[in-house]
Amino acid sequence: MSEEQYDDEEEIILSELDDEELVEQMHDDLYNGLKDEIIEGTSLLLERGWSPSKVLSDALVEGMRIVGIDFRDGILFVPEVLMAANAMKGGMAILRPLLAETGAETVGKMVVGTVKGDIHDIGKNLVSMMMEGAGFEVFDIGINNPVENYLEALDEHQPEILGMSALLTTTMPYMKVVIDTLIEQGRRDDYIVLVGGAPLNEEFGQAIGADAYCRDAAVAVETAKSMVEQKRALTR
Ligand code: B1M
What we know:
Layout: H1 3-8, H2 19-31, H3 35-47, H4 52-72, H5 78-102, E1 109-114, H6 122-133, E2 137-140, H7 147-157, E3 161-165, H8 174-184, E4 192-196, H9 202-207, E5 212-214, H10 217-235
Parallel strand pairs: 1-2, 1-3, 3-4, 4-5
Bound molecules: CO-5-methoxybenzimidazolylcobamide.
């Protein structure tokens, strides 16, 4: 781009936009992974009297929904989605304490981790970020987790969802060890168990007794949302 063209580009002053324009701009900024702009936009909406939950749903979650759709459709790729998720985190850091104060109900909670023997975490991290982007509270227990770690995190955080990730054909069977332990302890049905990772497939998910196999982060979000809704509807 020539200097002249660059100079011609109008700088957008977020504070000069009305609410509707600002929210639209934030969707674009999330899409482009612009963390500073998301932090500024989030603060501006709060200053203008928006509730934290409205900022979360209309500006951030809606923006990440668009990112998720384009990721699913192969228009965006992993690095871009990681940038978007990182920008979202900037906004979430401001909103999280405020949301906790107002006691707003989260979309749901998830404990997620990569199984024992496996240190791959890029996909899991992406799933965590996209789930947070969709309004879930995520407790990421990291990599190389024996069954005890999962049980401890489930006890501590009481989530609706247990997510497990495995990238190796040698480690994916460990997911069944975790599910079988939950069955042994009579608590399998307390959780929606979602599994993912490149070597898995639908049949494997069914064979080990998971509730669903998630091909990618966007599918994980969609599946989690609909399963939590179904579960809540049943217990109402
Ligand atoms: Co590894 N590695 N690696 N590796 N590595 C693979 C997986 C491999 C397929 C490469 C190959 O040989 N072609 C191969 C596995 C072969 C097999 O098992 N059949 C392999 C191997 C062999 C190994 C080592 C054994 C190599 C060695 O040391 N000899 C070793 C194992 C170490 C261990 O874990 N004990 C190893 C090490 C590594 C690195 C450390 C170098 C690095 C990991 C860095 C990190 O994660 N921090 C690494 C990498 C980067 C890869 C590849 C190249 C890329 C994986 C990745 O991040 N993909 C990978 C090749 C490949 O997969 N094509 C490979 C991008 C990511 C966004 O996708 O993880 O699939 P993915 O996640 C997706 C979905 O699967 C799904 O959503 C995500 C986002 O859309 N998903 C979930 C994933 N988890 C989910 C959980 C959910 C829901 C959805 O829960 C709700």
